[in-house]
Amino acid sequence: MKHHEVIVIGAGVAGIYQIKRLADLGVDATVLEAGGDLGGTWQWNRYPGARFDSESYTYGYSFSRELLDEWHWKERFSGQPENLRYLSHVADKFGLRRHMQFNCRVEAAHYDDAQNLWRLRTVDGRTGEGRALTCRFLILTLGLLSIPTLPRLEGMASFKGQSFHTFDWPHEPVEMAGKRVAVIGTGATGIQVIGEIADKVGELTVFQRRPNWSAPLNNGPISDAEMADIRRRYDEIFATCARTPGGFEHEPDRRGFHEATREERLALWDRLYDEPGFGIWLANFREIFTDEAANAEFSEYIADRIRRRVKDPKVAEKLIPRDHGFGVQRVPLETRYFEAYNRSNVQLVDISETPIVCVTETGLRTTERDHEFDIIVYATGFDAITGAFDRIDIQGVGGEKLVTKWRTTISTFLGMMIHGFPNMLMPAGPQSGSASTNYPRGIETGVNWCTDLLEYMSARGYTRAEATAGAEKRWTDHVTTLYAMMLMRKAKSWFTGYNSNVAGHEQGTVRYLVYNGGAPKYVNTINAVAAKGYEGVVLSADRGLAPTGSQPTAVA
Ligand code: NAP
């Protein structure tokens, strides 16, 4: 039996930082990663156009001054290859790879109540008979968007050309010049791909079911002088991120929407539309998120921008969402996206009018006609937030299955612990502060909280931590209440648990998956819990193995 004090599942942005913290403390820990290398999102999503829409310098880790000083972000919104290089650099710099095992997909994690440990089984059989992998603490950094979902269409396997989900974009270059390419899906991913490949392929046909509101990314290079300035300002930048709801530099406009004049609103929106990043969403009036009238007026402003950028008025109208307002779904930021539709080699097929019937050997059949393609790109999204948890057979006390517990309602304590699943921590779990904020800022908070809990326990000789049912209920009620204030509760998006390709999630019945109170409130809440000796968590030392040797010695 191979035993570790801590097993971390997932070597993405969160898992990398988590193992860094554990390694620094000298805890015996290992990371199990399903992929062939580290990087998570930035390892998998190699599609053309994949890049941050957080400012690069707010996305990097903040924990090491040396790292901040030596890394030069070359673009304001850095692309996938550079982002993966960065994460690799971090792992190499801090010697983290030796704590990671790749091509190691975990299929089961069962809590053993008598022994107070977790028993893991992996797909590759490295945990075969008599070789169980066990740990006292299980930390799940599985990624919020790590399970891609494909449409459920007949004939998908029969297509003779190349086809792939954007998440599984091949590592080797895909030859697209002169090719007839289909892209299905117009979420943040589809919008990035389309803008990037429109002028590089022979013909591009976009299959759009529902359009998304989108605004310019306004990317650009970062010069040496700008980078030097950013380095000088890092403390200030991270302090700003810490006090804004989204964990970005973008601060909401302090004026009330209804107090500002129409001219003042237009002046703000004109400025934000031309500025880089999420300002158009997050530095806007707060009422955009909560007030139907404010949201409708702003949505009409963006609709006009689309009309100005797309030459064919009929196409422009098809690109304007009708079923939700701006910002109530996660806003994609785009580069040359709307202009792509002005090109003669780009065609928009509205599959809300003429749905796809099936995939054929040569392409796609809609209710209107057959389309022939060399390549089909599925930019059809993810079984978001809970998908990666559902794919592992996680069983807690008494064999309770997590997938069953979460079937009707998601419930957690602070998005990081679950009643009935002792010693299982989720630094960026469902209902935590990470999904709705600048992700690395959120995960640093979550990882630090979880690691502090382990240190606290170790220092006091505790070996078991479990959130109480009451604390979990209070948190879940709080998360649910926050949804009630947000217009986003009405939208069919992954923020509300909608996915047309996953059985049970296609109706758009709201699932309370993200915390909408903003980063500062989240941080204050979880810090207050810690300050009160982890109120809401039962800590005990009464069961199981004695603490193992390589972690800080427990003083009972
Ligand atoms: P998504 O937002 O869920 O969009 C999926 C798209 O595929 C939607 O347009 C959806 O249409 C369409 N679709 C799904 N199933 C379909 C089917 N069976 N037939 C036809 N169309 C179908 O997924 P995503 O674009 O991958 O983005 C997910 C999240 O990843 C983003 O919100 C963002 O948080 C993150 N992301 C970030 C970046 C970045 O810049 N850093 C880039 C890409 C993604 P319906 O809307 O009608 O369902």
Please outline what is shown here.
The chain has helices at 13-25, 41-44, 56-59, 65-70, 80-93, 188-197, 224-243, 262-274, 279-282, 292-309, 313-318, 337-340, 387-390, 402-405, 439-460, 469-485, 519-531, and strands at 2-9, 29-32, 100-101, 106-112, 117-122, 133-140, 162-165, 180-184, 203-208, 215-216, 333-334, 346-350, 356-359, 363-366, 370-372, 375-378, 393-395, 424-425, 464-467, 537-540. It is of the alpha/beta class and 556 residues long.
Give an overview in words.
With 556 residues, the chain is α/β, with parallel strands linked by helices. The chain is 32% helix and 16% strand. The chain is built from 17 helices and 20 strands. It has helices at 13-25, 41-44, 56-59, 65-70, 80-93, 188-197, 224-243, 262-274, 279-282, 292-309, 313-318, 337-340, 387-390, 402-405, 439-460, 469-485, 519-531; strands at 2-9, 29-32, 100-101, 106-112, 117-122, 133-140, 162-165, 180-184, 203-208, 215-216, 333-334, 346-350, 356-359, 363-366, 370-372, 375-378, 393-395, 424-425, 464-467, 537-540. The strands form 5 sheets. Strands 1, 2, 3, 4, 5, 6, 17 and 18 form an 8-stranded mixed sheet that branches. A 5-stranded parallel sheet has the order 7-16-8-9-12, covered by helices on one side. Helix 1 links the parallel strand 1 and strand 2. Helix 1 (13-25) runs parallel beside helix 15 and helix 15 runs parallel beside helix 17 (519-531). The longest helix is centred in the last third of the chain and has 22 residues, at 439-460. The structure holds NADP nicotinamide-adenine-dinucleotide phosphate (NAP). NADP nicotinamide-adenine-dinucleotide phosphate is lined by residues 52-53, 145, 151, 184-190, 192, 209-210, 330, 351, 379-382, 494, 500-501.
